[in-house]
């Protein structure tokens, strides 16, 4: 139960509703117990009339009518309170589920990119959906069933003992067995359901991937192979489902068997006691038969509840693992730190923790606000990593990075991120309209600003070419943009923000060199008083930059302006010649 302690704060938050639920539950059970009592009493009245102990038929009818009215009233009240009980407990559990989901989601948003690289998306989704649902079973149904069972037990058993103590003892004997049996069966059911779920998600992933990759499957003629794989996976899934159905089929017959057994005990032992005179009327047997049936379901729920609590504990443990993680990138300054954009790296090293890859080695350079830096290098040379250090996606392993002469860690993290417009290598667009995708960079942007940004990113003409223009919805069931269009919408998103620092990670790789030239000219104009860093494979992107850095295997191997580097016999000139030759082919 240690892990579930995390939820106590929510119990405190909803204490009044829970207390009300408790009172309502007790009331519902007390009214429920009236029913067997008055049915027992009615049987006794009829028995007395049949035996000739009472001869006035009118009196018998009057008493029976009275009892019927009481039974009706008690049933109605018990039903009403049971309804209110569910309303209180289940509503509270839904509220706690909502709170917990928000808590987990907020934590996800706080955690650094590192966390997302270490954990699979499916895992993150499961914790917020499946695990939270299992925890809800503990704060809702499990709590409600426990309170119902305890109150019903106290109320019913008190009545039973008062009426016939020995018969009570015999009647209760099979009930713990019922509890244990239900516990075992529901445990097996849960285990097998998890396996079924696992296969379901395997099937989903398989189908989803085969739909996404349908063009590869078709062009390689792999349809039959993929079909066979699907059938085999589907067959395993079916077998797991059959395993589950088999054990589920046991559940109700077992319950009926054990209830029947308890009923037999009541009839046999109770009957003998009536014969021997220990119990003075048949009404008691009728009353007890009803009590046994009333107790069966709560007793069965003891098994259920034990299972629910176990599962909730396991789920909460998984949730806690994430909730207790500290973001690896922390904000050390809550004060305001306006940013101008003078960036300096001093002997910066960076090693990726997970792989131990030394992505940056002894990097030093300086770039002032209003200047443009181009970073050129082969794939894997550390270009993206360098940009990520400026956005504090990661902190440098060694050395210092300063912005406006302040170490980057001492800047308010929010101010830093606000001051940066970042276009990542693989442009990500949300399944939303193009306008909203651009507006993401500046929430309060006007339509004119959106169009202006799109024009500067040289994508406006493409957008108005779509029948719905800026309202064209992207993504699933929406239109898919070409790689180059995506990159340009992503650029528009960054420049609409008008940030002090613009970071472009190879974001013109999918456009031809002429379009690149137009966009670059626009970007130089937009970023006139800003700091702009452009990462590229292409020398053409770097040509007009105020400074060019050539990276190789994490190290700066050349530095200078285009003309200087062209005059040196180094990797920059090699790259230039290679790209020129490719262009002329
Ligand atoms: N998240 C990561 N975890 C571990 N290693 C990484 C990670 N990201 C990059 N690396 C490694 O760090 C090195 C530098 O990668 P980086 O992405 O910075 O190169 P790049 O120059 O931007 O390459 P490209 O032009 O292909 O994008 C590579 O060896 C890469 O495998």
TrEMBL record:
Compartment annotation: Cell membrane
Which residues are in the ABC transmembrane type-1 domain? 19-311
Lineage top rank: taxon: Bacteria
Where would you find the membrane-spanning parts of this chain? 64-85, 142-161, 167-185, 249-269, 289-309
**UniProt cross-references to Gene3D superfamilies, sorted A to Z:** ABC transporter type 1, transmembrane domain (1.20.1560.10), P-loop containing nucleotide triphosphate hydrolases (3.40.50.300)
Instruction: Kindly give the membrane topology term recorded for this protein.
Output: Multi-pass membrane protein
Q: Where is coiled-coil annotated?
A: none
Keywords from UniProt, A to Z, are:
ATP-binding, Membrane, Nucleotide-binding, Transmembrane, Transmembrane helix
Tell me one GO molecular function of this protein.
ATP binding
Name of the featured protein: ABC transporter ATP-binding protein
State the organism named in the record.
Mesonia sediminis
């Amino acid at each position: 139960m240690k892990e579930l302690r995390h939820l106590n704060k929510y119990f405190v938050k909803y204490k009044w509703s829970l207390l009300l639920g408790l009172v309502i539950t007790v009331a519902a059970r007390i009214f429920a117990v009236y029913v067997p009592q008055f049915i027992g009493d009615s049987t006794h009245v009829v028995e007395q009339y049949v035996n000739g102990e009472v001869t006035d038929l009118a009196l018998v009818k009057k008493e029976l009518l009275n009892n019927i009215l009481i039974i009706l009233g008690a049933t109605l009240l018990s039903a009403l309170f049971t309804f209110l009980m569910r309303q209180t407990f289940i509503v509270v559990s839904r509220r706690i589920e909502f709170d917990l989901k928000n808590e987990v989601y907020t934590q996800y948003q706080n955690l650094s990119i590192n966390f997302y690289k270490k954990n699979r998306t499916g895992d993150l989704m499961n914790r917020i959906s499946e695990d939270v649902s299992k925890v809800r079973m503990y704060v809702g149904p499990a709590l409600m069933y426990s309170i119902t069972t305890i109150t019903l037990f106290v109320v019913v058993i008190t009545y039973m003992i008062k009426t016939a103590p020995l018969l009570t003892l015999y009647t209760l004997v099979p009930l713990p067995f019922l509890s244990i049996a239900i516990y075992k069966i529901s445990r097996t059911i849960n285990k097998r359901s998890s396996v079924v779920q696992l296969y379901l998600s395997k099937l989903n992933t398989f189908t989803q991937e085969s739909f996404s990759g349908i063009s590869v499957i078709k062009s390689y003629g792999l349809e039959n192979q993929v079909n066979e794989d699907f059938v085999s996976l589907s067959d395993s899934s079916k077998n797991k489902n059959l395993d589950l159905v088999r054990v589920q089929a046991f559940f109700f017959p077992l319950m009926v068997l054990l209830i029947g057994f308890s009923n037999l005990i009541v009839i046999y032992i109770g009957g003998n006691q009536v014969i021997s005179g220990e119990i003075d009327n048949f009404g008691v047997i009728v009353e007890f038969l009803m009590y046994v049936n009333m107790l069966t379901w709560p007793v069965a729920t003891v098994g259920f509840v034990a299972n629910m609590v176990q599962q909730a504990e396991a789920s909460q443990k998984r949730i806690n693992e994430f909730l207790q993680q500290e973001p690896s990138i922390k904000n050390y300054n809550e004060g305001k730190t306006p940013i101008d954009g003078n960036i300096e790296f001093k002997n910066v090293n960076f090693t990726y923790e997970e792989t131990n890859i030394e992505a940056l080695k002894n990097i030093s350079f300086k770039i002032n606000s209003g200047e443009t830096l181009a970073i050129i290098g082969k794939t894997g040379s550390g270009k993206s990593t360098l940009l990520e250090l400026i956005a504090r996606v990661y902190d440098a392993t060694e050395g210092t990075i300063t912005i406006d002469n302040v170490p980057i860690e001492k800047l308010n993290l929010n101010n830093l991120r606000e001051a940066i417009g970042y276009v990542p290598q693989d442009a990500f667009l949300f399944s939303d309209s193009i306008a909203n995708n651009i507006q993401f960079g500046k929430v309060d942007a006007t339509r004119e600003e959106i169009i202006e940004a799109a024009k500067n990113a040289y994508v406006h003409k493409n957008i108005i070419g779509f029948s719905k223009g800026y309202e064209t919805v992207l993504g699933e069931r929406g239109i898919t943009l070409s790689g180059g269009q995506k990159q340009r919408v992503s650029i528009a998103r960054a420049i609409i923000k008008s940030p002090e620092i613009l970071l472009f990670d190879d974001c013109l790789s999918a456009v031809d060199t002429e379009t690149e030239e137009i966009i670059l000219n626009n970007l130089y104009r937009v970023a006139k008083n800003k700091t702009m860093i452009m990462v590229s494979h292409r020398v053409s992107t770097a040509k007009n930059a105020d400074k060019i850095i050539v990276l190789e295997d994490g190290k700066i191997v050349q530095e200078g302006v285009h003309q200087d580097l062209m005059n040196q016999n180094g990797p920059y000139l090699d790259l230039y010649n290679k790209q020129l030759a490719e262009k002329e082919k």
